[in-house]
Specification:
Elements: H1 10-28, H2 31-48, H3 57-77, H4 91-96, H5 99-103, H6 111-129, H7 133-144, H8 149-156, H9 160-177
Helix pairs in contact: 1-2, 1-3, 2-3, 7-9, 8-9
Pfam family, one: Sigma70_r2
Family: Belongs to the sigma-70 factor family. ECF subfamily.
Organism: Paenibacillus agaridevorans
Length: about 180
């Protein structure tokens, strides 16, 4: 898994995905939020594999999942204008936290790390711009502009459930069309 590509990661997701979901759900107490944070954790683990020291895999995974869930919960608490269960952290915020940053106790990021995050953010914006319009619209509003489902529904004239459905389908589209290599 560590030396292979995305196709070697699927067995890992099948083996640990449910465990990660239950760990995240225990912190968040929301199935919707737990699903989204679980996806973020899986992506974060995949990106962090080169830095994994090959000791205590399950504890490493648990630490990432719990820290990510706590970060999400804190972020959500700082944004009281969003309705409970209607939001999740912006995609940019999710990508700015790395497993190294959570495990390392250094108080400020290195200049190189900041530059890498900025480049990744630029690449992300470019990739979002290439999404189908009906997905791009809700992804930009929800993740980048941090709007709630209700706000997006009001602006686009869609029903709230349609907004949720489009975001779900957009996430599926991203999983099918985006690879880690696209951002390196």
């Amino acid at each position: 898994m560590r030396d292979g590509g995305p196709e070697h990661y699927r067995p890992f997701v099948q083996a640990y995905g449910t465990y990660i979901y239950h760990t995240v759900h225990a912190v968040l107490q929301s199935p919707h939020d737990a699903e989204d944070v679980t996806q973020e954790v899986l992506i974060q683990i995949y990106r962090s594999l080169p830095n994994y020291r090959m000791d205590g895999l399950k504890s490493w995974i648990t630490r990432i999942a719990v820290n990510r869930a706590i970060d999400y919960k804190r972020s959500k608490a700082r944004r009281p204008e969003q309705l409970s269960g209607a939001g999740e952290e912006a995609l940019q915020r999710a990508t700015s936290v790395t497993a190294i940053g959570m495990l390392d106790a250094t108080p400020s990021p290195a200049a190189e790390e900041v530059a890498m995050k900025q480049e990744w953010s630029r690449a992300l914006h470019e990739r979002v711009g290439g999404m189908p319009e009906h997905y791009r619209e809700v992804v930009e509003a929800f993740y980048m502009e941090e709007k709630s489902y209700e706000q997006i529904a009001a602006e686009t004239g869609l029903e709230r459930k349609s907004v949720e459905s489009r975001l779900y389908r957009a996430r599926s589209w991203m999983r099918r069309h985006w690879r880690k290599e696209d951002f390196e």
